[in-house]
Amino acid sequence: MKIQKLRIVAASACCAALMAVCMSVQAAAQNTKTLGSGVTGVQLSSTFTGALSSLGVKAGTVAPTMIYDGQALFPVNGGALDLDTASGNILHSGGLTLTAGGIETRLQSFIIDTTGTQPVITGLVVVNGKLVGRLSLFNLGLPSGFTLPIKDDGGVIVLKGVGVTLTAQAAGALNSVYSVSAFTAGLNLCTAEVVAFTQSNSYERPLVW
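Request: output the structure for the sequence above.
Response:
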């Protein structure tokens, strides 16, 4: 009888400990938001557009990306972001094309990845219809004065003034594809603004492209 009671007590203690762990995990994760839709807008720098022009490279878009009022607009179509730490992934559809000398390079399906020590944008690279793979394309720099936690304003998350520069991996790949040496790591591409709607709010805020 005593053994049975001891077993019941031990089982109860285990259940209590498990519930405490679950509650702790839930509390720690309660500020992670699932993203349903939105848009990232980028204003390409004159440094980058000038470099493209000097090489005879024509920039275009991959649907459903659009150019509007001098900005390239990339739809957000998913992801998750921890507002306390800014760690997460923001997924996008669409992309950019770079065409010169009969070679078309598509940079598409961008993911803003802030889970590592260096926030980056990765993307699928396709050269003349052949998939090269997903590469780390751009490094991200947060604007001065950026503070945590990130604000969730009624299901809308906004990040402004994010600096975007070319990674060494992307520079090497582009130089190799176009047989040039003009693309360099750290080349200033643009400033980005992200507007993302949390999943619970995305159905109330449709984006038409």
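The longest strand covers residues 32-44.
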